[in-house]
């Protein structure tokens, strides 16, 4: 894409913020669980389902927006659903019963998943391969930044006289404001659509009706799209690379949403901190995420060197060093948080555990995504759809069982369970770093990357 660096940078920031506000919406409601339960006379598990349903919408959205973006381009397939998601946020804010809250949250997630699904494609449209890694790192921070900032903002709103409904009013207002900015600064980036527009303009200017872009002649069938976005992602989950990488990324992403409840139990129930101060440990998570971004940017230098040595063909295994480190750090963070959660222990060790968890989470998540894209090349859209679906199912499920689990097992043993699972997953990137090329060469969808 022959845009200026300034235009590419502004586009990246705009899409990043667009994504940030909808991922923030997924977490800001965590602080509203108690007041919503009290207002509508339901238990906290029912109210927590409002978070889960929005994230489940994130999982189903790629099955819709992915194929449509290949037909109609990026810009409007992001902005129109995003507008509808903002409307549903206002619907939640004005809800008169718990059923309305749950339904509007689900549809807010379904339509709001459009930027989460498509923006990765926008980054690939506008950035050269040697620049793409850093752009994806910056964009990735916005994806995970929303769920870390959401509980802090939500806690402040719910403890003020504004109340829980303003978690949704604010979400809708910010999304609408971002939409207005996007309409001013964002242009279409999908090359086939741009060529089709150019061909249309030339036909009008030259009166030569034979001029057509290849995209205009693409007679895509529903069967083809169904195969690519509905069937193939689930088939790819049966391959060792897609299954293990998606499973690892989904597990750590599920822990991110489990933290929405575990932090409130640790710092508000156990340590008796206030509703605002009790959400401040999420800042430690954000610090860990930012440190992970620095690690990923540093690794991109190594990746570019390997890329040049390989004749500018992708080297998937060069994505894995941050993940190899991150798995160990993530596990250490889980165990440290687990066994310093007692009110008799100073809170700083648990805060450090949270920061380590954030660092490990982000390095694992971004490396897994990059490895899937490099491995499955022309089938990467299906691999990413599989990853997004599994990730959203995990993230939506965790808030449903995490409260009763922690109340039954305690924070120490409950988090130890997660730490043990994390420890069992540590070998995954090492396995693919050593034998990944051989495994890729035997795969139906991955052999082109060898």
Automatic annotation (TrEMBL):
<keyword id="KW-1133">Transmembrane helix</keyword>
<dbReference type="GO" id="GO:0022857">
    <property type="term" value="F:transmembrane transporter activity"/>
</dbReference>
<dbReference type="InterPro" id="IPR020846">
    <property type="entry name" value="MFS_dom"/>
</dbReference>
<keyword id="KW-0325">Glycoprotein</keyword>
<keyword id="KW-0472">Membrane</keyword>
<comment type="similarity">
    <text>Belongs to the major facilitator superfamily. DHA1 family. Polyamines/proton antiporter (TC 2.A.1.2.16) subfamily.</text>
</comment>
<protein>
    <submittedName>
        <fullName>Uncharacterized protein</fullName>
    </submittedName>
</protein>
<dbReference type="InterPro" id="IPR011701">
    <property type="entry name" value="MFS"/>
</dbReference>
<dbReference type="GO" id="GO:0005886">
    <property type="term" value="C:plasma membrane"/>
</dbReference>
<dbReference type="Pfam" id="PF07690">
    <property type="entry name" value="MFS_1"/>
</dbReference>
<comment type="function">
    <text>Efflux pump involved in export of fusaric acid, a mycotoxin with low to moderate toxicity to animals and humans, but with high phytotoxic properties. Constitutes a self-protecting mechanism of the fungus against critical levels of FSA within the cell.</text>
</comment>
<dbReference type="InterPro" id="IPR036259">
    <property type="entry name" value="MFS_trans_sf"/>
</dbReference>
<keyword id="KW-0812">Transmembrane</keyword>
């Amino acid at each position: 894409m022959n845009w200026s660096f300034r235009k590419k940078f502004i586009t990246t920031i705009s899409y990043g913020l667009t994504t940030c506000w909808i991922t923030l919406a997924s977490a800001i409601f965590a602080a509203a669980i108690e007041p919503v339960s009290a207002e509508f006379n339901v238990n906290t598990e029912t109210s927590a389902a409002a978070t889960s349903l929005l994230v489940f919408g994130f999982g189903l959205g790629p099955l819709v927006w992915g194929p449509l973006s290949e037909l109609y381009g990026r810009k409007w397939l992001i902005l129109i659903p995003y507008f509808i998601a903002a409307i549903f946020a206002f619907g939640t804010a004005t809800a008169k019963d718990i059923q309305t809250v749950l339904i509007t949250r689900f549809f807010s997630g379904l339509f709001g998943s459009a930027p989460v699904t498509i923006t990765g494609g926008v980054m690939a449209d506008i950035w050269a391969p040697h620049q793409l890694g850093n752009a994806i790192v910056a964009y990735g921070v916005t994806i995970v930044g929303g769920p870390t900032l959401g509980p802090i903002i939500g806690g402040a709103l719910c403890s003020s006289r504004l109340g829980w409904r303003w978690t949704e009013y604010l979400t809708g207002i910010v999304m609408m404001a971002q939409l207005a900015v996007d309409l001013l600064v964002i242009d279409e980036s999908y090359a086939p659509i741009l060529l089709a527009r150019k061909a249309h303009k030339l036909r009008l200017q030259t009166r030569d009706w034979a001029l057509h872009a290849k995209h205009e002649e693409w007679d895509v069938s529903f069967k083809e799209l169904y195969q690519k976005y509905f069937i193939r992602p689930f088939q790819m989950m049966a391959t060792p690379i897609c299954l293990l990488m998606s499973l690892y990324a989904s597990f750590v992403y599920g822990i991110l949403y489990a933290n929405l409840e575990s932090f409130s139990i640790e710092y508000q129930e156990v340590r008796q901190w206030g509703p605002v101060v009790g959400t401040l440990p999420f800042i430690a998570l954000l610090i860990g995420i930012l440190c992970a971004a620095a690690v990923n940017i540093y690794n991109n230098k190594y990746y570019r060197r390997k890329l040049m040595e390989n004749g500018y063909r992708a080297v998937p295994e060069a994505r894995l060093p941050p993940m190899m480190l991150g798995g160990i750090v993530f596990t250490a963070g889980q165990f440290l948080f687990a066994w310093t959660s007692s009110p008799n222990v100073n809170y700083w060790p648990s805060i450090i555990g949270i920061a380590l968890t954030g660092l490990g989470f982000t390095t694992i998540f971004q490396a897994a995504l990059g490895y899937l894209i490099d491995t499955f090349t022309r089938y990467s859209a299906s691999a990413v759809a599989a990853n997004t679906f599994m990730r959203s199912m995990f993230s939506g499920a965790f808030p449903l069982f995490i409260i009763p689990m922690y109340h039954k097992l305690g924070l120490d043993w409950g988090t130890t369970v997660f730490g043990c699972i994390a420890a069992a997953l540590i070998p995954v990137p090492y396995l693919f770093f050593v034998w990944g090329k051989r495994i890729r060469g035997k795969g139906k969808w991955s052999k082109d990357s060898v």
